[in-house]
Design a protein that fits this description.
single chain; 432 residues; alpha/beta; Rossmann fold; 7-stranded parallel beta sheet; 20 helices; globular
């Protein structure tokens, strides 16, 4: 099985190698962490403390781990945390966010890379965030005396149907997981139908990780840095993809004369698009400023548009916004996290393409706590309604904030389950 998987992975890499070379050359992707990814040469963990290896694919999953790590530290003060990511942006954020932990890139699922990583990390437990079902990574856990668990698990209808076709492979793989802690009963049923045994419903960790106070120190700092006043009404378009910044800018252009209190903040999802969005803003008649220049240059008092060209700050910037558009939802990406702006009590809207957050969207819409906009014109109408009617804006935001409050508690449930699978062993294995 290991040999067949290795051959399959090599074939896939050869097939997509032209794209990988193009992305590495023009966008700087995939250059870092080669030895860790292909050879498993991650940083060697020193000492013999109990170790939890947490794997988070990218930025969203890295942020997701915060409350889990905090709670585990309360329960186990002497445990080491080793964090791996797949993407460069995720790695950058993890290094910044978890500076007291060891951070590296996760090995690709080649048997030699995975096994080498296990020898160097020597984990007692491996925690996979959301849905990272890599066969060699899972199968090797017990071989190296580690338990392996999925937290905040989710399984979309599309993925479920795909895995059903491979049930002869998925059933034995899922049964090797010591725990699958999922977000809701629908996901639990899908995992069980695929043959998983150790499935528990905990709720979503994303709700616990959301900041609910606009007066948190980070948001207060950013608001002061950008010199946003209490009379400003901030319209923030966050986690945007191509075309969505243009829609937000068109909305701002159409409404700013009639509503001089309106401010626009743009936060593109991917760092490689910062310059592309900057060019779009250069072509507009409006003064604008980069977030990265605020400390050095100070805010431009003539500018009502801010481009956030930094990583890991979106969660705090949402706290400055009264009106929120959650990106990745008008295009093909499938939506981004709408919990954060909802938790602050912002008036939240998003496009119709939100498959990645279907359960959250359904919850918000069923309580009239968010609005779906089909296109740029409906986005303009939504923002205009929020500007014209403070009551409409505040009612929508209050409902969203209340929904988030009712969903809290997933972290405690997850940690209680993980405790049953984390033996505090006396480690004697040596790093390779």
């Amino acid at each position: 099985m290991h040999l067949l998987l290795n051959i399959l992975y090599l074939g896939l890499i050869v097939a997509v190698s032209p794209y990988l070379v193009w992305a590495a050359f023009f966008h700087g992707k995939y250059r870092e962490g080669f030895a860790a990814k292909f050879l498993g040469k991650v940083k060697i963990r020193q000492g013999d403390k109990t170790c939890i290896w947490l794997h988070a694919v990218s930025v969203g999953e890295v942020n997701l781990l915060q409350t889990l790590i905090d709670q585990l530290r309360v329960q186990y003060s002497d445990v080491e945390f080793y964090i791996t990511t797949t993407t460069k942006t995720g790695h950058t954020l993890a290094c910044k966010k978890y500076s007291d932990c060891t951070v590296d890139y996760c090995p690709l699922d080649f048997s030699w890379a995975v096994n080498n990583a296990y020898r160097r990390i020597r984990p007692n437990m491996v925690i996979l965030a959301e849905l990272e079902l890599w066969p060699n990574l899972i199968r090797s856990a017990h071989q190296f005396d580690a338990t392996i668990c999925v937290v905040n698990g989710r399984l979309s209808e599309k993925s479920f149907r795909g895995y059903q076709r491979l049930s002869f492979l998925m059933r034995p793989l899922l049964q090797q997981l010591d725990l699958i802690a999922v977000q809701d009963p629908v996901y639990a049923e899908r995992f069980q139908n695929l043959g998983a045994k150790n499935v528990e419903v905990t709720g979503s960790l994303k709700f616990d990780g959301a900041e609910t106070s606009r007066n948190n120190p980070f948001t207060v700092k950013l608001k002061k840095l950008a010199q946003l006043s209490d009379t400003d009404v901030v319209f923030l378009a966050g986690s945007t993809q191509s075309g969505e910044e243009e829609a937000a800018l068109e909305t701002f252009s159409a409404l700013t004369q009639q509503h001089p209190e309106l401010r626009l903040i743009l936060v593109p999802r991917h760092p490689e698009r910062f310059d592309e969005v900057a060019q779009l803003l250069d072509q507009s008649p409006h003064a604008w400023q980069r977030r990265s220049n605020l400390e050095a240059d100070g805010p431009d008092l003539n500018s009502k548009i801010l481009l956030v060209d930094t990583i890991g700050e979106l969660g705090a910037w949402w706290g400055t916004a009264q009106i929120a558009f959650v990106g990745g939802s008008l295009g093909t990406r499938g939506g981004q996290n709408m919990i954060e702006p909802s938790a602050y009590g912002g008036a939240v809207c998003f496009g119709p393409k939100t498959r990645n957050f279907r359960d959250v969207v359904q919850l918000l819409l069923s309580h009239d706590a968010a609005v779906v906009v089909q296109d740029s014109n409906e986005l303009k109408v939504f923002v205009e309604n929020c500007l014209e009617s403070v009551r409409f804006r505040q009612d929508l935001g209050n409902k969203a904030a209340q929904i988030v409050l009712t969903q809290l508690g997933a972290t405690k449930k997850t940690v209680d389950l993980l405790q049953k699978h984390l033996p505090m062993r006396d480690l004697s294995r040596k790093a390779a």
